[in-house]
Automatic annotation (TrEMBL):
Species this chain originates from: Marchantia polymorpha subsp. ruderalis
Lineage start: Eukaryota, Viridiplantae, Streptophyta, Embryophyta, Marchantiophyta
Protein name: non-specific serine/threonine protein kinase
PANTHER family noted in UniProt: LRR RECEPTOR-LIKE SERINE/THREONINE-PROTEIN KINASE-RELATED (PTHR48056), RECEPTOR PROTEIN-TYROSINE KINASE CEPR1 (PTHR48056:SF81)
Chain segments annotated as transmembrane: 790-814
Listed Gene3D superfamilies: Phosphorylase Kinase, domain 1, Ribonuclease Inhibitor, Transferase(Phosphotransferase) domain 1
Amino acid sequence: MMSRRKSVTGALCFEWLSVLVWTYCWLAAHVHGLSPDGQILLEIKSSFVDTPGNMSNWLATDATPCSWFGISCLEDGLSVRSVTLSGHGFNLSGEISTSLGKLAYLQELDLAFNNLSGPLPKELGNCSELRSMRFDSNPLISGTIPPAFGNLSKLQDLSLSQLQLTGNIPIEFGNLKSLLSLSLYSNNLSGSIPPALGSLHQLSVLELANNSLSGPLPPELGNCKNLSSLILYSLQLEGSIPPTYGQLEKLQELDLTTNRLTGEIPPELGNCSSITHIYLGTNSLSGQIPEQLGRLQNVKVLFLNTNSFTGVIPAVLGNMSSLTNLTIGENLLVGEIPPTLGFLRDLMYLNLYENNLTGKIPGELGNCTKLDFLYLPFNNLTGSVPPELGNLRLLSSLQLWNNSLSGIPSELGNCSNLQVLDIYSNKLVGSIPPEIAKLPRLRELRLYDNQLTGTIPSDLGLHSNLTYVILRMNKLAGPIPAGLCSFRSILILDLSSNMLDGTVPVDVTRCPTLYRLRLQYNRLTGPIPKEIGQNKALLYFDASFNNLSGSIPPEVGLCTKLTAVLLSQNSLNGTIPSSLGQLPLLVELNVSSNQLSGSIPSELGNLSTLYELDLSDNSLTGDVPLELSKMSSLRFLNLNDNSLTGLSNIWSSLGSLQGLQLAGNKFSGLVHAEIGTMTSLQIILDLSRNHFSGQIPAALGRLQLLEYLDLSRNNLSGQIPESLDNMQSLLFVNISYNNLIGPLPESWQKFITADSVIGNPGLCTWDGNCSSWSQSTGQEGEGGDKYSNWAIAGYAISALVGALALIFFGVGLYRLRSRRLDRRGAEGCLEVWSKDVKYKEISLQSILRATGELNGNCIIHRGDSSTLYKASLDSGQVVAIKVLRENVDDRMEKEYRREVETVGMIRHRNFVKMIGFCEWKKHRFLVLEFLSNGSLRDVLHKKNAEGLRDWNSRYKVAVGIAHGLEYLHFDCKPQIIHRDIKSSNVLLDDDFEAQISDFGSAKLRDKSHLNGSTSKVVGSHGYMAPECGYSLQVSDKVDVYSYGVVLLELLTGKHPLDHSFAVGTTLVTWVESNIREARLSHEVLLDKRLLDTGDDHVAKELQLVMQIAVLCTKELPAERPSIRQVLSMLQQVRAR
């Protein structure tokens, strides 16, 4: 009893003692002021800018900080245990105070999600009690990671992600033996991943993604036996995946996407029994997919996209019963799709895009009843779409395009959740099942480029809010369903290139959301509904090549967003509505080949953005309005075959014009000499079949870029001006049926024929014989051949004058102007030369000496802004010297600067080599490698040009261009888009190896400008991608399109705007229409010189490459392959 009383008394005494101690401390604090940790916190507060006022209760009058916002203390009531000032509502700014390192008992520091700046204080390494430190999502924190952080032996959680940290990961982090989570993703860290991290045996999470880390994956990480998450995507890691990672039995997520990893997937990964997510996409991994992965029963996501895996898809992947996402697209897999994938009952996403898979789509996939996304494009799959896919009631997207599938089963109508159905570019036959039209959630239907027949289901559009309906390039007949736009949601309607008849439904034209309407190449009749004016969203309207009648409704002028109105080849009558001049964004207007009458509305001159105007083949009368001179963006003007009489002298204001066609009218008087001021004219100048009289203006000789000149069937007289001898780009001339006299220009020997000069009895041959021209035509004398070679060489070098020349010019002039350079030339000359030893003697003096002080005898080409000389240096080296004109305007300066920005980073064998530049007095000399084989354009299209007569040599050129573009699109950072790929910008060296030139239109495309917007239309007619005509947003797919046109040139031997084509036809449309309508076989389309060998293997290769070219020239950018995919396909063609 006594002991119990003593125990109770002792307990009471202890409690009273505790109260006394606490009271003493409280009194001491109030007597002596704020505690030491509180004073430290006030120092820390002084470095912050607390705009929201969250720290307003941090007061110096308090005894302890333990009640302050964001602060917690130890049990002593004095020592700070945690500082938590994180969250999107804090918005702290300012720098991080070094005083944080004075908080000796600090265990938790959280300043995440603020706007703090400056470096991380190394003094934090003194906080030896720290368990958790978080600074993530402060985008202004910079500097390096202090190695002192490696002293924090008790640290368990370190998060420094989404900052601007640079430098290496400190090897001292290997001392953090208690660390459970290390997050450093989204910084600018460099160097390699320290192998010392492999000693962190407690580590569970390692996140280093989205940095500039390089080097190999450390095998030592396989020692981190507790690692559950290894996130290393978007780095620059190289080498193979270490087999030691197979020891990570607790690993749940492995993400190594977007690196430079090579080698095979180690089979040991099959031992990671806990893993649920494997991401290895966008690397250069190769070999076969190891069957050991089939043992991983817990894997939900297997992502192997964009590598170089070969072999077949292992059937054992069907054992991965937990799989929800299987992505193996963009590899080199072959064989059939394993039916065992049908065992994956939880599978929601299956992507096998762009492999070489063959055979049928297994019907067993219909057992994957949770499947939401089935993506199998760009393979070689055959047979019908399996009807078993109709069991997939949850399927929302079925994409099977670019295969060889043959039929659409009606059972797809059971896929009640289907929203996207894409089976375009196959070999589908039969009709569109009416059940498809009844799908209640269908939004996107793309079945184009097939052989579908029958009618479009009449109720299409009545059951779902369709947004995209693209059925072009089939054999569909019957009327356009009137209810296509019942839900007022359709964005693109493309029914072109079918056999549709009937009228254009009123409801379709007035659909308020429709921005792209394509109905061309059908058999439509009746008028264009005036209700089209209600469609304020319409951007593109093409109803050409139909049998439409009536007048063009003036209401079209109310569609103020229109960029293209294309109504050619119909039976439209009446006048051209003046309201078309109210379309401020119009880029292309083509109403050719109709029955239009009256005059050209002067209001069309208001179309300041118009790129192409084609009013040809109508019955227009009167004068060409003077107001057309205001069309500053106009590149192509075609007024052929009307009854126009008056021609205003508007040419000096149309300096951007590249093609001018006025043939077949009633124009008379002198040919305006001002046409010679339009030095951009390069495609065509056609004044034929008029009543022009007088002499040919000598000013036409300034048209150095012109390829096609037709002055035939006029009343021209006198001699042909000598200046026309300088038009080195000409491919075709017709001056027949005039009254011309005297000799023909020497340079015309390369292409002139009797038909092109007949009807001029006073013309003489080149030897001065004016009585036997017909016997002399077609004969190529020795002098003619010599001149032709010089012309080819000259053109080749002239094509070099684009911004590739500015590699040295710009770098020297704009980056080195402030430095004093070593000079080999005259005083006052700024020179930058290649370090190549074979050009070591080059200097200003040697240039002047080699060109005879810029003597006219050395000129091989005159351009609008420069003159090109051939120079044989003292060393024996032959180079080309481009001398820029003396007065360089602001626009040219800007182009030079842009050019420098573009080409300064290019180092590749498929680009023209720059030797150097010098600037002396008012002269600027650009020294280029001399390529005697000229441009691809010359070799393919000049008469009697030698070279590239066999398929092997052309294939080499095609692959070389593709290699160069792949470098621009994938290896240059930022990406470079050339935007003007054409045969005249592809030069050929002595071995006929392709070298790309002329970057004057190039565009850099970095992460901050992913849309690649531009302020003007760029590119060359015939090569320019369709989207360039109606959108200022560019992507690398514009280069792919242009490359496809060049590929067609190589295959067919025809120019993109070949004079043998019908009006309005290009090489792309010529090939497309002939293939679609089976008018000509592939063999007939091909250049006959390529088939002379009779080699069946060559013929097969040519057909396959033709298919690649057609893919490249698809109208929609998304349908074109990347240039890397194109290169891979080309290489596979040769590997077969």
